[in-house]
Amino acid sequence: MSVRIAERMNRMAPSGIRKVNEKALAMERAGETVYHFEIGRPDFDTPAYIKQAACRALEQGKVHYTSNFGLMELRQAIADKLKRENGVEYKATEVLVTVGLSEAVFAVLATILNEGDEILVPDPVWLNYINVPNLLGAKAVTYGLKEETGFQLDLDEIRAKVTDRTRAVVIVTPNNPTGGVLEENVLQELAEIAREHDLMVLSDEIYERLVYDGAKHISIASLPGMKERTFTLNGMSKAYAMDGWRLGYVAAPEEYILAMNKFHQHNTTCAPSFVQAAAIAALTEEGDEVREMVKEYQRRRDYAVAAINATPGLSCQCPKGAFYIFINCKSLGMKSAELSAWLLENAKIALVPGDVFGPGGEGYLRMSFANSYENIVEGCRRLREAVEQLRSRKEEAK
Ligand SMILES: Cc1ncc(COP(=O)(O)O)c(C=O)c1O
After folding, report:
1. Position in ligand 1 atom list of the atom nearest CA 243
2. How confident is the model at residue 396 (pLDDT cuts 50, 70, 90)?
3. How far is the first Cα of the chain from the last one, in angstroms, to the nearest whole number?
4. Distance from the CA of 207 to the center of ligand 1, in angstroms?
5. What is the largest CA-CA distance in the chain?
6. How far is CA 2 from the centre of its chain?
7. Ligand 1 center to residue 392 CA distance, Å?
8. The domain at 10-39+289-390 falls in which architecture?
9. Nearest atom within ligand 1 for CA of residue 102
10. For ligand 1, what atom is nearest to the CA of residue 41?
11. pLDDT-based confidence at 12, cuts 50/70/90?
């Protein structure tokens, strides 16, 4: 029998992050010790009060399908959170509960993009925002995030790239892979562009709780006239260390929620029932758990940023959010992919080549500091030693 895969699958690239991870795991299976800085997932366990809520739900027999939209109590808890923390007033019926934010991205894009439509997405970016529009026959048009501006938006570039086919703009704040947090004046100007050109905004806020040095996360939906043109995308994965639980949500005007629900119904039916129960607890019974995790992320970030900037040949901005450091390695004169492979092979440290997130990421490596402080100390030591070795080889070759 011949294997026949539909042509559309060629429009999606496999994950370059997983490629590094697979290689690192294979090395471990062969008995080597590898320091993992490639995967963007919390290394903390899910807080106990959330696990207990899931266990209670299972014991109570909450094991069946829920409403496709999600449990009304959870939708209300999300609406309350969005009002309390983000300053946007949503009704519970303006919230759709999904299987991770990842599913919400698919639902939103399937709902708003016709074939041939364009959507503006950052470069570099978490790649779903490129792959999903392309799969749907739409076109992801990239705008650059530049290190010189602290990875803020270049609003002139965005303006110049709007055409009569542009349907929406994607923003990710705090950002993966740059760690940048968009400033209020930048968001205000973007909102102006969106209103002027009648664009929707997809605002990915999955890292909103992971902000440092008093940086303030702002939801663009809270700006005047923006709630009706924003899809606020979020979920439990990062802040609550619940990435394996697969729970996300999107808040938007109800007409969109109804349309997206058709996609969601046929895709996943609903998010898992007992996970929804746990998410209600996560949002309504939170103590210091998230704050404690953020404190520890900041401690690791501070160490790693100082160590990287003290390594001749490397430099980085101090990320204001998320748990990534985007390391500038341009002066080493190697392609990111080549350098990442060399570091894994020789120093046993796994870092993601920046070009995996788009051409704008070439010349960078993404380091996740969602790993223990001790491993970060050792990883930075190995990185420094390896880069010194590379530089002295280069000198000798001259
Ligand atoms: C920007 C961004 N959005 C969404 C996700 C995935 O979220 P979820 O686990 O809720 O699907 C990730 C995961 O790395 C991410 O980096």
Report:
1. 9
2. confident
3. 56
4. 8
5. 71
6. 37
7. 39
8. Alpha-Beta Complex (3.90)
9. 11
10. 14
11. confident
DSSP assignment string, 209-275? T-B-TT-----GGGSTT-GGGEEEEEESTTTTT-GGG--EEEE--HHHHHHHHHHHHHHTSSS-HHH
Nearest CA to 104 among 143, 78, 122?
Answer: 78
Q: Which atom of ligand 1 is nearest to the CA of 247?
A: 10
- pLDDT at 1 (0 to 100): 86
pLDDT of 88 reads 98
- Angstrom distances, CA of residue 55 to CA of 42, 248, 373: 21, 20, 31
pLDDT tens-place string over residues 127-158:
999 999 999 999 999 999 999 999 999 999 99
Q: Kindly report the backbone phi and psi dihedral angles of residue 281, in degrees, each rounded to the nearest multiple of 5, phi listed first.
A: -60, -45
Instruction: Dump the DSSP string for 102-139.
Output: HHHHHHHHHHHPPTT-EEEEEES--THHHHHHHHTT-E
Q: Give me the architecture of the 60-284 domain, per CATH.
A: 3-Layer(aba) Sandwich (3.40)
In this structure, are residues 235 and 248 in contact, taking their beta carbons and an 8 Å threshold? yes
Other CB atoms within 10 Å distance of the CB of residue 375 = 16
Which atom of ligand 1 is the closest one to the Cα of 104?
11
Pocket residues: Cβ below 6 A from ligand 1? 40, 100-102, 126, 172, 176, 204, 206, 235, 237, 243, 248
Which of these, 90, 124, 135, lies nearest to 233 by C-alpha position?
Answer: 90
* Pocket-testing residue among 126, 202, 268, ligand 1, by greatest number of atoms within 8 A of Cβ: 126
Best residue among 237, 243, 366 to mutate for probing ligand 1, ranked by most atoms within 8 Å of CB: 237
The residues spanned by each domain of the chain are: 10-39+289-390, 60-284
pLDDT for the residue 217? 98
Ligand 1 centre and the CA of 4: distance in Å? 30
pLDDT at 18 > cutoff 90: no
Residue that is written with structure tokens 């639980």 in the block? 245
Q: Is the pTM of this model over 0.90?
A: yes
Q: How far apart are CA 347 and CA 341, in angstroms?
A: 10
Order of strands across the sheet that contains 230-235: 95-98, 248-251, 230-235, 200-204, 166-172, 118-123, 139-144
Structure tokens at 267: 């895709």
Distance 206 CA to ligand 1 centre (A): 6
Query: What is the rounded average pLDDT of the residues 39-68?
Result: 97
- Alpha-carbon dihedral of residues 364, 302, 243, 82, nearest 10 degrees? -110
Q: Which two tokens stand for residue 6?
A: 């539909």
